[in-house]
């Protein structure tokens, strides 16, 4: 019989027991609450199956449980449901790979576990579809964040080429960003009027607020550092972190490739930064008498 990481499987199932019990207290839908409680009971049965192959109890990965709870509080139930659906799919694949190597009685039991996991996956997909209404404004939030990051980083890069004063660059970024947030919110309002499934006012608010929050975060380093170079690179670091954050979220929720989306977004940011810096240096060359 091939090596089977029994302790890891038992710990995973124990983690699911605690997570589903806790999650059942967070969701509002009574149907989903009951579904999650049933999941917890089934996962306890799965844990007992793997535990009988151990000499004692499996350890509960407490840090992972805390991490999942943090993600739920930060990113919402829809995100974690999609994440758990992905995990169930991987669990099914692993169990199917090891099933042929088990003794016949254990193999039959494992196939029953696989049926449970497949049922979980199907019910997660149903729950995610029911929660999709909460995700309909995600596109507007991502639009505001991504546009703000690209545009304001471009402004800051341009000032890096033309000015040695970080305060000037920070103020310029805030002014441009504030004006652009109003413009983007107006565009989102007009776009949403063509879509009856969303509120134009809420769409505009989500776009404008996400835009101005990103602008404020990117401008902060220019008010905290006296060196233009340090302020710029700290701001760029924040921009990359924000990009990776919303790309990861959208890749999980919409089942896209994180790697491809992240590389494309960071590539656009890099190109914008280089071109804007070059334009700022060009302005400095043609107008050396001006001190910004």
Give a brief outline of the structure.
The chain has 10 helices and no strands. It is mostly helical and about 290 residues long.
Detailed description of the structure:
The chain is an all-alpha fold. The chain has 2 domains: 6-132, Ferritin (Up-down Bundle), CATH 1.20.1260; 136-286, no CATH class. It has 10 helices and no strands. The relative contact order is 0.09.
For the sheet with most strands, the description reads:
none
Sequence of secondary-structure elements: HHHHHHHHHH
Q: Count of DSSP E strands?
A: 0
Beta-strand percentage range: under 5%
Radius of gyration: 25 Å
What is the arithmetic mean of pLDDT?
Answer: 80
Count of all domains: 2
* Structural class by sheet pairing and helices: mainly alpha
Distance between the termini: 73 Å
Unreliable runs, pLDDT <50, ≥5 residues? none
Which of globular, elongated, flat, extended, rod-shaped describes the shape? elongated
Count of alpha/pi helices? 10
Percent helix: over 70%
What are the SSEs and their pairings?
Blueprint: H1 6-24, H2 30-51, H3 62-75, H4 77-98, H5 104-131, H6 138-162, H7 166-192, H8 200-224, H9 228-253, H10 258-286
